[in-house]
Amino acid sequence: MTPSVETYLRLRSVSGLSAKTAEAARAGLPNTWQGVTVLCGDEPVGMGRVIGDGGCFFQIVDICVAPEHQGRGLGKRIVAELMQELEHRAPAGAYVSLIADGDARFLYEKFGFTPTMPASIGMHRTV
What is the DSSP letter of 34? Predict the structure, then answer.
């Protein structure tokens, strides 16, 4: 389930991810290929998304869990659900990428992700 704009903005903020505007979230969230929202009761406490072109390229983004719910394996469950959907629906040979901040690389390694260096290097630019 793709998070609402309000949930998206709140979870990014409380988990320490960079802030996004409501306008950007309203434009971007409908383009989610697969979304996961973790609830504690009725309250969203974690999320993750896959974005991409639906065929050749996919990117895992927005993996975050509210601080008071971290350390319980929720991030691992979010990534596992996204990977399950990718393995089920994405065409063979699809390229799945992500940016691993800090120690998050250890989580992603459990799902078969490897550094692209030295063959390539991830790059970014904010507009």
Answer: E
pTM listed for this prediction: 0.93
Cα atoms in the 13 Å half-sphere on the side-chain side of 107: 21
- Residue 90, SS3 per DSSP: coil
Q: Are 85 and 34 a contacting pair, CB within 8 Å?
A: yes
Cβ atoms of residues 78 and 63 within 8 Å: yes
Cα separations (Å) of 59 from 46, 54, 56, 108? 18, 10, 11, 13
Alpha helices in 5-125 (DSSP H): 5-15, 22-28, 74-89, 104-109
34-64 pLDDT, tens digit per residue, is 999 999 999 999 999 999 999 999 999 999 9
pLDDT tens digit string along 26-38? 999 999 999 999 9
What are the backbone angles phi and psi of residue 59, rounded to the nearest 5°?
-135, 135
Q: Exposed/middle/buried for 121, CB within 10 Å: 0-12, 13-18, 19+?
A: exposed
Residue position matching structure tokens 């895992």: 60
